[in-house]
Amino acid sequence: MPAEGPILVATDIHRHFEGMRAVDGVSIEVPRGQITGLIGPNGAGKSTFLAVIAGTLPTSSGTIVFDGETITHLPAYARARRGLVRTFQLPSEFARLTVLENLLVAAPHNRGDSLFGALMGKGYWIKDERRLVEQARGLLKRFGMTAKESDYAGTMSGGQKRLIEIMRALMLGPRLLLLDEPMSGVHPSVVQEIQYYLQDLRREGLTILMVEHELHMVERLCDSVIVMAQGKVIGSGTMASLRKQREIVDAYLVG
Amino acid sequence: MTNAQVYYATNLLVYAGVDIIACLALNLQFGLSGIVNFSFIVFQAVGAYTAAVLSMPPDSANGAFQTYVGGLQLPFPIPWIGGAIAGGLLAIPVGLVVLRRLRPDYQAIALLVLSVIANTVITNAVPLLNGAAGIALVPPPLSDQFDPNTINYQYFFVGLTAIGVVLAALVASRIVNSPYGRSLRAMREHEIAATAIGKNPVQLKMTVFIVGGLIAGLSGAILVGFIQVWAPSVWLYPETIILFAAIIVGGRGNNIGAILGALLVPVGFEEVTRLLVKLNIGPPGLIPALEWVAIGLLIIGFLWFRPDGVRPEARRVFEGAPIPEDVANAG
Fold first, then answer.
1. Which of A157, B168, B210, B302 could potentially form a cystine with B21 if both were Cys, beta carbons 3.0 to 4.6 Å apart?
2. Which residue segment(s) compose the domain that B123 sits in?
3. Among residues A144, A146, A220, A221, which one has the least CA distance to residue A179?
4. Pick from B207, B182, B206: which is nearest to B194 by CA?
């Protein structure tokens, strides 16, 4: 039943780099309408796993089912079009596009976004464009970046680039948002802001899977948490329940 | 104006037109989309050869002093259209091999190598297109109806070239200013992130590569109709570098920059050096050799001091965007 149960089921995912097992048989389920945290020490394979789910990296073996559809062999762009949208650990804005353009470019369903549509001329796609400008401005307002709409994204601060990336992902109307350390390299005051926005999005029913290092943040934001170490899942549950498990505390939660 | 001056002026205008068309095409690929097409001149050449053999009589004509395939004697404008289509068709196999799997830096190397290979093959496969000697006596458009050796025909050809320029500029401006053009720019800025928001980079690159090939082919068809000869020596790989210099000097990613670049580098710069040759400074061959040095310095100088070119890509401000003062007052 696609409309119920977990939105993402990954089964026995392996990702090997020339013999190095970065992801070594990971199986997880991501429940709908919640924020799921993915934590673990450096080199645990969290970011690699996220990239495999998003299709940025191919799977060595295993299956990924997204909302009832097997997507294991779909390229990254096709997964994004189905609503499985990721962000990146490093800033990945389109530097020489304005903030507003960064949002517009992500929007599906623009008649001018094909060679044919472009050659047909402005009259063919201006309606779509106007609608999307309005939608993008709505997001900019919500994320407090209205004043920046005409600035090049490359000139924004680290925190603003994070927000741009989240807004850009939202323009696709995602069903599952994959966030790769959305707070890394961001000023503490902006961390609060991003946290607030993510909670807000969760309240609206958006499902999020996020890799995060900062455990207090995970505790505040995530409904449940998956712990990875050395390419494997070593535990899952709420943060409070995980703190009680000895091996997990040893592996990660304490120094 | 004396006849000589008219010939000089019309000659310059046709060359300017051809270079503008070529730069508009290269700007779509390189300036807008970030594809370093070091084989660009091959697409111009294939357009020229195709237009030539479509318009020429069979190679048994004129005492069979040259050999080539085709010789279909088709009426204008079929050779020009054929030249453009040939450029677009060539882009398909080249694009499929080069643009799908290789990293951008290797794409550039592969395309450069392709340019050298293509030139070598055409030079040595004599029966195909008459080898190094090239093909001559290419009939100018409508030369069966107008005498091409008149001043009026010169003006007529300038007009034909202008139509080509307008057509190329129309296509280029529609692409650059569309949401599709925006997707191309996003891919240029960060390909992996573009993929993550649902853009298929292979599809984007292939389409713009084919359009660029079509326009490049047209530029070759126009040029061969004017100079009436075409040989491997006119499309050696450094010719592509001159066009890259034009895009870099003019300003990447915008059509005005591409047009400016075409007028400044292939037209203006080369014209100046050609005049310098007439001054007989130094040993013969010195000025043409220094021209390449100057082109190189021009590219490095601009990349160093003014990487965005004379006319940088414009920042796009949308209708109804907040003006900074308004925001300050409101806040």
1. B168
2. 3-236
3. A221
4. B182
The secondary structure element, H or E, covering residue B156 is: helix B151-176
Angle at which helices A122-142 and B179-189 cross, to 10°: 50
Task: Express each pLDDT in A67-115 by its tens digit.
Answer: 999 999 999 999 999 999 999 999 999 999 999 999 999 999 999 999 9
Interchain pair B198, A172: CB under 8 A: yes
Q: Take residue B68 and report the two structure tokens written for it.
A: 């080539």
Residue B26 lies in a domain: yes
Structural tokens at position B190: 């960060």
Assigned domain for B206 exists: yes
Q: Which residues of A touch B209 (CB under 8 A)?
A: none
Residue A21: φ, ψ to 5°: -90, 90
What is the secondary structure of B294-307 as a DSSP string? HHHHHHHHHHHH-T
| A118/B179 CB distance under 8 A | yes
Residue type, A187: H
Number of domains in chain B: 1
Higher pLDDT, B228 or B324: B228
| CB A104 within 8 Å of CB A133 | yes
Give the A:B interface size as CB pairs under 8 Å.
130
Does B118 fall in a domain? Answer: yes
Q: How far is A40 from chain B (nearest CA, A)?
A: 24
Which residue in A has a C-alpha nearest to residue B313's C-alpha?
A96
Which pLDDT band holds residue B79 (cuts at 50, 70, 90)? Answer: very high
Q: Are residues B322 and A149, on separate chains, in Cβ contact within 8 Å?
A: yes
3-state secondary structure (DSSP) of residue A179: strand
**What's the ipTM?**
0.94
Question: What is the distance between the alpha carbons of residues B120 and B131, in angstroms, rounded to a whole number?
Answer: 9
For A8-93+174-253, CATH gives 3.40.50.300
Q: Give the E-state strand segments of chain A in sequence order.
A: 8-17, 20-30, 35-39, 61-66, 69-70, 84-86, 176-180, 207-211, 224-229, 232-237
Is residue B47 a contact partner of residue B90, using CB atoms and an 8 Å limit?
Answer: no
Which tens digit of pLDDT belongs to each residue from B83-110? 999 999 999 999 999 999 899 999 999 9
CA dist A218 and A183 (Å) reads: 11
Structural domain boundaries in chain A: 8-93+174-253, 94-155
Task: Decide if B317 and A150 are in contact by the 8 Å CB cutoff.
Answer: yes
Pairs from B68-77 (Cβ < 8 Å, separation ≥ 24): B68/B128, B68/B129, B68/B130, B68/B135, B69/B127, B69/B128, B69/B129, B76/B141, B76/B142, B77/B141
Q: Which two tokens stand for residue A6?
A: 């977990």
Q: Does residue B224 have a pLDDT over 80?
A: yes
Q: Is residue B306 part of a domain?
A: no
What confidence category does residue A1 fall into, taking pLDDT thresholds of 50, 70 and 90? very low
